[in-house]
Amino acid sequence: MKMIRRKRRIRMAMMMRRRIRRRRRIWRKLRIRKRIRRRRRKKKTMKTWM
User: Fold this and answer.
1) Helix, strand, or coil here: 1?
2) Number of helices and strands (H, E) in the chain?
3) How far is C-alpha 2 from the geometric centre of its chain's CA atoms?
4) What is the distance between the alpha carbons of residues 49 and 21, in angstroms, rounded to a whole number?
5) Alpha-carbon distance 45 to 42, whole Å?
6) Cα–Cα distances in Å, from 2 out to 8, 14, 15, 16?
7) What are the tens digits of pLDDT across the range 1-50?
């Protein structure tokens, strides 16, 4: 019985870790998109300066 409980805990921990990883990937994508927007704005300012 103790072994089964431990396995269940391990499975739950693995699922939680996977969910956290997925969330982190989504956050990274959002950050990358924000960076691209900022870079585009900087390029526009460079053109106006030229």
Assistant:
1) coil
2) 1, 0
3) 35
4) 42
5) 5
6) 10, 19, 20, 21
7) 677 778 888 888 887 777 766 667 767 777 767 666 666 666 666 666 55
